[in-house]
């Protein structure tokens, strides 16, 4: 274990609120949009989820790092959060399968964090004030200097980030002998999505974010998947155009999270930046087609505009969030295309929604009737 002394650190929010704590991870300075996740487990999967790119994560569980780092539980090849805010930063870990501590992990990947923060008070503040930019530093103590650096950080509203986390070259996942071929547009795809396709006898080719439909179509896929990812969907005309062409070609299509927002945009439905977004493992969603409820894993700061969905003659609503009535799922009328705002691959989270992968395979087979 790395020798480590907790040095002082500062968290400054864009509204001027200051929190003092202890350094966690690499000594340095980091910036990003601050947000919180209410999940009680799965911190490693959260760290490596590409949808969190450019964001400082506040974890609401009191203990982070207590079960160490297990290399098989990553959702991408590197940590994607911009920084970490937590209460208890546990360098010692108890799990036999873990290969290193959270401190070694963060130091190796150059991640700056702050611990010993009253995260309950911080989350209440963000809930009241909304998501905003923030800066963490364990090397700068001058608040005016930190304010100047923070003022230079762009808003998440209008940012295109998916091309920064997407694969640079196409790659395959699964068995070439599988029954079904799925082309996945990587806007920040999570590995557990690929695992779910592989377990359903599907071979996936993953394409870079800005790949055209024409290029993807050369492979002759049976269906198309539009992935999750970070940033503002309205700032991604390249992906919206790709989705439009998949629809025009009458190909089966499934979208998750950012993919859901892009399917809406491709049908003339606008998207918006949410006040706080949904991030956690216990969001109740009702499938109004099948008339059942499910507990879902969620991570998004943007959403589709509900009134525009309800007035659209191109799509119909399939899922609704029972907390705030936001639109959690749509399907395109007359097309083999549907999407959900939440994460059915649920890593971490409950497995209530994994039937959606089966529905997509059923759509490819021509057996899905809803």
From TrEMBL:
<feature type="active site">
    <location>
        <position position="343"/>
    </location>
</feature>
<keyword id="KW-0028">Amino-acid biosynthesis</keyword>
<feature type="region of interest" description="CPSase">
    <location>
        <begin position="1"/>
        <end position="180"/>
    </location>
</feature>
<comment type="function">
    <text>Small subunit of the glutamine-dependent carbamoyl phosphate synthetase (CPSase). CPSase catalyzes the formation of carbamoyl phosphate from the ammonia moiety of glutamine, carbonate, and phosphate donated by ATP, constituting the first step of 2 biosynthetic pathways, one leading to arginine and/or urea and the other to pyrimidine nucleotides. The small subunit (glutamine amidotransferase) binds and cleaves glutamine to supply the large subunit with the substrate ammonia.</text>
</comment>
<keyword id="KW-0315">Glutamine amidotransferase</keyword>
<dbReference type="GO" id="GO:0006207">
    <property type="term" value="P:'de novo' pyrimidine nucleobase biosynthetic process"/>
</dbReference>
<protein>
    <recommendedName>
        <fullName>Carbamoyl phosphate synthase small chain</fullName>
        <ecNumber>6.3.5.5</ecNumber>
    </recommendedName>
</protein>
<dbReference type="GO" id="GO:0004359">
    <property type="term" value="F:glutaminase activity"/>
</dbReference>
<keyword id="KW-0055">Arginine biosynthesis</keyword>
<feature type="binding site">
    <location>
        <position position="302"/>
    </location>
    <ligand>
        <name>L-glutamine</name>
    </ligand>
</feature>
<feature type="binding site">
    <location>
        <position position="261"/>
    </location>
    <ligand>
        <name>L-glutamine</name>
    </ligand>
</feature>
<feature type="binding site">
    <location>
        <position position="51"/>
    </location>
    <ligand>
        <name>L-glutamine</name>
    </ligand>
</feature>
<feature type="binding site">
    <location>
        <position position="301"/>
    </location>
    <ligand>
        <name>L-glutamine</name>
    </ligand>
</feature>
<comment type="pathway">
    <text>Pyrimidine metabolism; UMP biosynthesis via de novo pathway; (S)-dihydroorotate from bicarbonate: step 1/3.</text>
</comment>
<feature type="active site" description="Nucleophile">
    <location>
        <position position="257"/>
    </location>
</feature>
<dbReference type="InterPro" id="IPR050472">
    <property type="entry name" value="Anth_synth/Amidotransfase"/>
</dbReference>
<dbReference type="Pfam" id="PF00117">
    <property type="entry name" value="GATase"/>
</dbReference>
<comment type="pathway">
    <text>Amino-acid biosynthesis; L-arginine biosynthesis; carbamoyl phosphate from bicarbonate: step 1/1.</text>
</comment>
<feature type="active site">
    <location>
        <position position="345"/>
    </location>
</feature>
<dbReference type="InterPro" id="IPR006274">
    <property type="entry name" value="CarbamoylP_synth_ssu"/>
</dbReference>
<keyword id="KW-0665">Pyrimidine biosynthesis</keyword>
<keyword id="KW-0436">Ligase</keyword>
<dbReference type="InterPro" id="IPR035686">
    <property type="entry name" value="CPSase_GATase1"/>
</dbReference>
<feature type="binding site">
    <location>
        <position position="258"/>
    </location>
    <ligand>
        <name>L-glutamine</name>
    </ligand>
</feature>
<comment type="similarity">
    <text>Belongs to the CarA family.</text>
</comment>
<dbReference type="Pfam" id="PF00988">
    <property type="entry name" value="CPSase_sm_chain"/>
</dbReference>
<dbReference type="GO" id="GO:0004088">
    <property type="term" value="F:carbamoyl-phosphate synthase (glutamine-hydrolyzing) activity"/>
</dbReference>
<dbReference type="GO" id="GO:0006541">
    <property type="term" value="P:glutamine metabolic process"/>
</dbReference>
<dbReference type="InterPro" id="IPR036480">
    <property type="entry name" value="CarbP_synth_ssu_N_sf"/>
</dbReference>
<feature type="domain" description="Carbamoyl-phosphate synthase small subunit N-terminal">
    <location>
        <begin position="7"/>
        <end position="137"/>
    </location>
</feature>
<dbReference type="GO" id="GO:0005524">
    <property type="term" value="F:ATP binding"/>
</dbReference>
<dbReference type="InterPro" id="IPR029062">
    <property type="entry name" value="Class_I_gatase-like"/>
</dbReference>
<feature type="binding site">
    <location>
        <position position="231"/>
    </location>
    <ligand>
        <name>L-glutamine</name>
    </ligand>
</feature>
<dbReference type="InterPro" id="IPR017926">
    <property type="entry name" value="GATASE"/>
</dbReference>
<keyword id="KW-0547">Nucleotide-binding</keyword>
<dbReference type="GO" id="GO:0006526">
    <property type="term" value="P:L-arginine biosynthetic process"/>
</dbReference>
<keyword id="KW-0067">ATP-binding</keyword>
<feature type="binding site">
    <location>
        <position position="229"/>
    </location>
    <ligand>
        <name>L-glutamine</name>
    </ligand>
</feature>
<dbReference type="GO" id="GO:0044205">
    <property type="term" value="P:'de novo' UMP biosynthetic process"/>
</dbReference>
<comment type="subunit">
    <text>Composed of two chains; the small (or glutamine) chain promotes the hydrolysis of glutamine to ammonia, which is used by the large (or ammonia) chain to synthesize carbamoyl phosphate. Tetramer of heterodimers (alpha,beta)4.</text>
</comment>
<dbReference type="InterPro" id="IPR002474">
    <property type="entry name" value="CarbamoylP_synth_ssu_N"/>
</dbReference>
<feature type="binding site">
    <location>
        <position position="299"/>
    </location>
    <ligand>
        <name>L-glutamine</name>
    </ligand>
</feature>
